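SECTION: protein entry
WANTED: fold as C-alpha cells:
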Amino acid sequence: MGTPASEKPTILTACQPTSHFHLGNYLGAVRRWADMQDDYECFFGVVDLHAMTAPYTPADLRRNTLECAAQYIACGLDPKRSNIFVQSHVTGHTELAWILGCLAPLGQLERMTQFKDKSKRIGQSVGAGLFFYPVLQAADILLYNADAVPVGEDQKQHLELARDLAQKFNNTYSETFKLPEPLIGKKGARIMALQDPESKMSKSDKNQSSTLYLFEPKESIRKKVMSAVTDSGSEISASDDKPGVSNLMSILSSLTGHSYEEIAGQFSGKGYAPFKEAVAEAVIATVEPLQARYQELMKDKDALNTVLKEGAEVAQKRAYKMLAKVYRKAGLLERVR
C-alpha cells in the first residue's frame, strides 16, 4: 500500500510547450520527476501561458501543448500516480499572479537573469509578459502550496522569488504559504551542448547539431553524437580541461549507471570513435521505447485530453481552496458560486 496522497508532501513543476524535450530535459528533470511519483503528491503542469511571452503561432501552441502532455507520459509520468494538467485550464494561476505582482518589488524583477538576457536579444519590442512571468511562475508553485520544486541550478533564482513573495504575503497578511524548497538533481543534471560544451544543451541553440531531442530520428542522434566536439588528445577522462569528453561521459554515465572510472577503463587506449559510438548507442537504446510510447499516445488524442481534463479537475480543487484563503486574507469579498 502506498502513502495516501493527502499525507504526502506536494511537488509542482512544469514545462513550456515550445518544442520536443531534449536529452538534457530528460536526464536533468523529467526522469527524476518520474521517480518522485510514489513519494510525493505530484502536479505536472504544461504551462501554455508562459509560452505566450515569446512570439508564437496559435495553432502551434495548441499542438505543442498536447504533444508536451504525451511526452510527459512517454517519459514515465503516470496519470494514475500524478496530476498532469494544462496551466490555462485551471482558474487561479493568473489571479494569484496579480495578487503576488502587487507585492513584487520592481527592482527584483528587473534583476531576473532570464529577463535581462532575453530582453537584450529581443530589444524594445519585448513584451511585458516576459518581465512579469516570474511572478506567474511563483503563482504556479504557491497556488498548490508546494513543499518542494524540482529545479536546475539555473532556475534557483526564480524559486527564490517564489519564496520571497510567499514570505512577503505571510508577513503582510498572515501565515498562508509554505516556503517551497528546491529539489536539485546531481549526476546528469546539467547536460551541455554537443558543439559547445561550455554552454548548456538548449532547445533555442542556433546550432541544432548541439541538441539531442528525444523524439528525433535515431540516425540523426547518431550523427550528432559522432560529430560532437571533443578535446585535444585521445584520452577518455573527465576533467576541466576536457569539457567535450566530460560531457559525453556524463551522458553515458547517466544512461548506463557506469561510473566515470569504469567508462575511462573501458575505453582506455581506444580513442574517441568507439567511445562516441557507445554514447550514441546508449542514447538510442534509451529513446526507442519513449518514441514508441509517444507515437502510441499521439494516435489517441481523445485519451490524452481525458488525462488533461482529469488532471485539471484535481488541480482546480486544490487551487480554489488556496485562492479562497488568499482572497479572504487579502481583503477581497468572497466570490459567489
Q: What stands out?
A: DSSP finds twelve helices and five strands in the chain. Residues 5-189+301-330 form a domain with the Rossmann fold fold (CATH 3.40.50.620). The chain has two domains: 5-189+301-330, 208-294.
